[in-house]
Amino acid sequence: MKKGLLAILAIVALMTGCATSAEKMARQAEVAAQVKEALQDRHYKIDVHMMYPRRGSSVNVSSNYSLEVKGDTLVSYLPYFGRAYNVPYGGGKGLNFKALITGYRSEPGNKGLTRIQISTENEEDQYLYYLEIFNNGEATIDVQSRQREFITYSGRMDLY
């Protein structure tokens, strides 16, 4: 009796595990399709959670900081810690601006990774944004500026 009951429980646990695994794989495929579509449309937003300045330790970002691409426009709302070389009095705009994208290059990488290079400028500086976006929505943003030190962010794509 006990052996039969244990066998039935084992079969039920195995079937439940398979169903959960199938659901998880279906959800991953759905997220990957949403990420791919957003990148193809050039309409996506990355919510930033961590900041990695060139000097010092990483900083957990607690506000609604993000980087958004809307067709030919870049909306950068990112905090900045680091050395500034030649900026306007008071610090200027930093990495908080909206500007036209002057260059955009996207190429696929290994295992669902997409690498994107975005160049833009405003009246204060010229910027290069290097994005690495995985098919699960996780992202890394590297920002290179002429007037400020290099800085890195990590976050997740906001899938509408």
Rg over alpha carbons: 21 Å
- Tally the helices: what do you get? 1
Note the overall shape: globular
Counting DSSP E segments of at least 2 residues, the number of strands comes to: 9
Oligomeric status:
single chain
Terminal-residue CA separation: 52 Å
Order of helices and strands: HEEEEEEEEE
Brief description of this entry?
This protein is of the alpha+beta class and 160 residues long. The protein contains 1 helix and 9 strands; from the N terminus they run H-E-E-E-E-E-E-E-E-E.
Word description of this protein:
With 160 residues, the protein is of the alpha+beta class. It is 25% helix and 43% strand. It is built from one helix and nine strands, in the order αβββββββββ. The protein has one helix spanning 2-41; strands spanning 43-53, 59-60, 66-70, 73-78, 95-108, 114-121, 126-133, 138-145, 151-157. The chain has an eight-stranded antiparallel barrel with strand order 1-3-4-5-6-7-8-9. A hairpin with a 5-residue loop joins strand 5 (95-108) and strand 6. The longest helix has 40 residues, at 2-41. It is globular and about 75 Å long. The chain starts with a helix and ends with a strand. The mean pLDDT is 85.
Features:
160 residues, globular, 1 helix, 8-stranded antiparallel barrel, alpha+beta
Topology:
Elements: H1 2-41, E1 43-53, E2 59-60, E3 66-70, E4 73-78, E5 95-108, E6 114-121, E7 126-133, E8 138-145, E9 151-157
Antiparallel strand pairs: 1-2, 1-3, 1-9, 3-4, 4-5, 5-6, 6-7, 7-8, 8-9
